[in-house]
Design goal:
Structural class: alpha+beta
Shape: rod-shaped
Region (Disordered): 1-49
Strand order of the largest sheet: 1-2-5
CATH class of the largest domain: Mainly Beta
Keywords: Membrane, Transmembrane, Transmembrane helix
Oligomer: single chain
Transmembrane segments: 58-76
InterPro entries: DUF4307
Largest sheet: 3 strands, antiparallel
Helix content: 10-25%
Order of helices and strands: HHEEEEEE
Number of helices: 2
Number of domains: 2
Biased composition (Basic and acidic residues): 31-42
């Protein structure tokens, strides 16, 4: 029966024997169709993948943990630095050495209420150590303390120096 329309211009209707499927486009689809479409267009998540909300929660939790770790480290490092005194030393000079000793004059900058230990040494002409002594400087009225110390030597020294000073705990 001819209804007056050109059949070549119209797409064939789906149905038995036509070889085409009729697809209804709408807002709801069944799970199988959604799964096929997701698979076709790469919208599927690999097994075990997290949803965007779960991923966001995980990132926030990791960020909070990182922040807490950084704050804990800063508190720990800060307490160690606060407990540590700043100590520096400088040689003022030394007397003419004898065969058995040399007198070293040096100054130490430290916390006036703190105690420091300084290692001083005397050296021979070939730079070998010929005398060594540890000196303790206790609390003082000023933050710069000058000290004169005799270093006994095994042979004649030609030089003397402060090897280093460090704060004493307690």
């Amino acid at each position: 029966m001819d209804d007056g329309t050109d059949r070549a211009a119209q797409p064939p209707r789906g149905g038995a024997g036509t070889g085409t499927e009729e697809v209804t486009v709408g807002t709801t689809t069944d799970r199988a169709t959604r799964a096929r479409l997701d698979e076709r267009y790469g919208r599927t998540r690999p097994s075990g993948a997290r949803s965007p909300l779960a991923r966001r929660r995980l990132l926030v939790a990791l960020g909070v943990l990182a922040l807490l770790a950084a704050l804990g480290w800063a508190a720990w490092a800060g307490s160690g630095l606060a407990a540590q005194q700043r100590v520096s030393s400088q040689v003022i000079g030394f007397t003419e050495p004898t065969d058995s000793s040399v007198t070293l004059t040096f100054q130490v900058t430290k916390d006036p209420e703190g105690t420091v230990r300084c290692d001083v040494r005397a050296m021979a002409e070939d730079f070998t150590t010929v005398g060594w002594r540890t000196v303790e400087l206790g609390p003082a009225d000023d933050d710069v303390v000058a000290r004169q110390v005799e270093i006994r030597t095994q042979q004649r020294a030609v030089s003397a120096e402060v090897m280093g000073c460090e704060a004493v705990e307690g």
